[in-house]
Every structure is written in structure tokens, then in C-alpha cells.
Design goal:
single chain, alpha/beta, Rossmann fold, Alpha-Beta Plaits, 3 domains, 6-stranded mixed sheet, 17 helices, elongated
Length: 410
Amino acid sequence: MNDFNLDSIRKAAEGIRDHVVRTPLVPAARLAETLGCELSLKLESLQFTGSFKDRGACWKLMNLDEESARRGVIAMSAGNHAQGVAYHARRLGIPATIVMPEFAPFAKVERTRSFGARVVLTGDTLDASAIAAQEIALKESLTFVHPYDDPFIMSGQGTIGLELLEDLADFDCLVVPIGGGGLISGIATAVKALRPQVEIIGVEAALYPSMQEALSAGGSGGSGTTLADGIAVKRPGKLTTPVVKELVSDILLADEGAIETAIHYLVEQQKIVPEGAGAAGVAAMLGHRERFAGRRVVAVIGGGNIDVRLLSGVLDRGLMRDGRVVRLRIEIIDRPRQLALIAQVIGETGGNIIEVYHQRLFADVPAKRADIDVVVETRDSEHVSDIMKGLQEAGFPCRVLSSRSIDTNV
């Protein structure tokens, strides 16, 4: 691709300089200690629309000819690309149509509309929405803005690589999420041209290993529901795949548990709010710690557009996983003062009761007995064991219902 190289990325960097956020590269000392390496995070989640998509969308739109800009553009996206195109189209005075699947989150649909775009909700899959977008583009003579398979998009995303090299004098490994490949192909082209000794490692959601499959024997591209919906791509780009094959040394897969844990750790330890796709790099590091031990690593946090309710659920589950919120099922004799005694034991051992559920009618216990489910805030899993021991000694058999990490043999 003669129109995509280091020079095109440098040109993009100059062109979008005053139109996008120059995002910070921050050290992640606490997370680095957990992972056993030196770690810095490139926070593309701080772009105006919350993801790196601002860069490529802006550069693509700035390079439209006058007639194409007058007629307008169309894009297909369930989230970040939609917002990037809509926002910069409004800034540049270009009419924008965004085709979104019928299942697109309501908040993302409304935010895209708030940027002034015409939103068309159609298609029960992303592929169906893409076909609809192409049909509308042809019918209305609109320019289709591809989310990743476009030299201008790739060059725009590659500006991240130039910023990394300016901000950090020495690192030896760069971890980048992969969906269609626009982000990693742009960054890898810039970094490898200027600092070839840096190893580039890509990360895909384990449910959507499409780039990994494209570079091997092929496959279905993946399926399923993933937290990393921003990189849930079944077919990587025709332009991006050869670049990844040449410049990326390895592609790791991040499973759903690791992605969930990465979001939790980034929020709690580093005070950074990522979406699932944005946390994929850190998730891969959590799942392959030996691969990064002792190294100087940069991970790209590609976006931060996570649904607030989903984030709340992830954080609550993280507390349960760490044993800091636990649900105990306690067997009692159904007579007065039992609940008061249980509360006394939990209080004396330093636990804080959040909720209580009294199971009389539907529990599988004898008529004169009952189950009580108690949700308790604790310090850690060791503290949970202390509380359970105290309950056992007071004559209340109990077990944990809510955590895989706690010893329940009390």
C-alpha cells in the first residue's frame, strides 16, 4: 500500500493535531507490581468520544473531496466508530448517516444522534447492518467510511504510535487490542519503522480470534457474547491483515474472566475506566504473566465507553471474587433471636451485613429449620473464613454461595 506508510502517518499526525486529544501515557505502578513488569498505559479512553476511533475518523473526513463532503458520509457501527464519525462530521460540516444494528445499546444510539448524525437502526447482526449501509451508500451517493480497512483510517490510528515514541524513550513490548486490525496495523507501522526492536503483541477476545485464524488455517471468526464487543469482529481487514502478519510477533487471546478482572483492576488500582475492548491488552497480560515478566511494556487502552450498569456489575463481581463481598447461607433452628445472634457474631468478627434473605417456605430444609442468606462486606477471603468459623462455633452451619476464591470447608 503505497498510500499507507510512515509518511502517511506523519501527515495524519500533523493534520489532526488540533482536532483530537493528544492522550497521556501514564505509568501503572500498582498494576505493574501485580504483573511483575514495568507498565505504562496509553489512555485513548480520554478522546472526546471515548475511544481511539476519533483519530482515523477525523483524518478520513478531512481528506474527502469537496463534492463527497457535500453529499455526506455513511458508516456502520454499534458504538465507537459511529460516535467518532458523527462527532467529526458535525465539526467539519459534513452530513453523516450512521447505520446501527437493532440491538445497539440505547445510550450509544442516543449519543450518536446527539452529535447530529442521522441514525438508521436496521439488521439483527453486524453483517446485516453492513449490507444495509452499503445499499444506502449506493442509493444516496454517500461515501462509506470503513471502520478499519482504509488507508486514511489506518494512518489516523497510527498517530498513537508516534506519540508513544515521543513520550517514552525506552520500552521493549507494545500490547494492542485487535478487532479489524486498523489500530494495531497503524501503530505497528509507525513503531516498527522508528524503533524496530520493539515487539508488537496483539490481543483478541477469545470468542473472536478472527485475526489469529486469518493468519493461520482460517476459521469461523468466532461467535458469542463478549465484554469486549468493540473488538468482536468476525472478519479482519484485507488491508490490515498483511500488515499484522509482517509486523506483529504474536497474537494472544483474552478470555471473558480475564477481561472482567482487567476492568476491575484498572478501575480500582489505576483509577482508569476502560470498556471491555480497551482492557483487552491488560487482560492478556493477566492471563500470560510469564510472557511479560521483567519487561518494559506499554498497553493501549483503546476506549472507555462502558455501560454504567455493566461496569457496576463487573465491580460488584470483582468484590465477590476477591472475597470482599460474600453471600453466606446459614442454617438455623426456626425460633426467636436466631437472626440477632447471627448479626452479633458477624459484627463481633468485623463483618458488615448488607442484605438478609430469610428462606422459610421454599428452602429444602426440615419444617423446624430455615435458611438465612446474608450478604456481608468483608476485608478479604481470610476475613470470610474467620466469620464462618465464628458462626460455626456459635452453632450455625454455613457455606459460601457467591465466591470461587474462598475456602468454603468450614
